[in-house]
């Protein structure tokens, strides 16, 4: 991550999880309760770590923070928590970055696209139902059975477009 992204102030307020971390955490907790899911202390803390991040975090970044707080030092600690969060709609895996980000809208099932800044590595979650529907139609027309799709777009966030390279 660049110095621009690491600074005390985030470059933008609209990246997933940054603007309303407590509200998003409350939605995630409510979703877990409604579905009878167990949000263990390590899973809860992992979600908090993702919400506090500016952009997506790799599993080893998450593990480092968990280990520093006494949750364990072995990679499965982070991977199990991250996989649980992704499988239950509380986080997303950003394949381009091989990293994870908290879901900005965990209260409802939805299709999302991820806007990834190539300068500061920030990630913004954007609604993508129309894109997902178009992709599903294209796959159907081609006789292709679509299992899943991750929509990731790269460019510059609004703060980085105003900062000289």
What's a quick, concise take on this entry?
This protein is an alpha+beta fold and 165 residues long. The protein has helices spanning 3-6, 21-34, 41-52, 59-68, 75-87, 129-141, and strands spanning 91-94, 99-102, 112-117, 123-127, 151-155. The chain is globular, with a radius of gyration of 16 Å.
Question: If you had to describe this structure to a student in words, what would you say it looks like?
Answer:
With 165 residues, this protein is an alpha+beta fold. It has helices spanning 3-6, 21-34, 41-52, 59-68, 75-87, 129-141; strands spanning 91-94, 99-102, 112-117, 123-127, 151-155. The chain is built from six helices and five strands, in the order αααααββββαβ. The two termini are 15 Å apart. β1 and β2 form a beta hairpin. It has a three-stranded mixed beta sheet with strand order 4-3-5. It has a two-stranded antiparallel sheet with strand order 1-2. The protein has one domain (15-162): Orthogonal Bundle (Arc Repressor Mutant, subunit A), CATH 1.10.10.10. The longest helix has 14 residues, at 21-34. 40% of the residues lie in helices and 15% in strands. The chain is globular, with a radius of gyration of 16 Å.
């Amino acid at each position: 991550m660049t110095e621009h992204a690491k600074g005390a102030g985030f470059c933008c307020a609209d990246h997933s999880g940054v603007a309303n971390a407590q509200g998003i955490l409350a939605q995630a907790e409510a979703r877990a309760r409604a579905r009878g899911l167990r949000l263990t202390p390590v899973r809860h803390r992992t979600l908090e770590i993702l919400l506090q991040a500016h952009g997506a975090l790799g599993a080893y970044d998450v593990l480092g923070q968990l280990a520093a707080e006494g949750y364990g030092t072995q990679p499965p600690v982070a991977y199990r928590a991250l996989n649980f969060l992704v499988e239950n709609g509380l986080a997303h895996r950003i394949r381009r970055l091989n990293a994870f980000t908290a879901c900005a809208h965990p209260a409802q099932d939805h299709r999302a696209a991820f806007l990834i800044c190539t300068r500061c590595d920030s990630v913004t979650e954007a609604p993508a139902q129309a894109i997902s529907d178009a992709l599903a139609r294209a796959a159907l027309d081609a006789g292709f059975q679509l299992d899943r799709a991750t929509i990731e777009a790269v460019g510059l966030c609004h703060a980085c477009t105003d900062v000289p390279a």
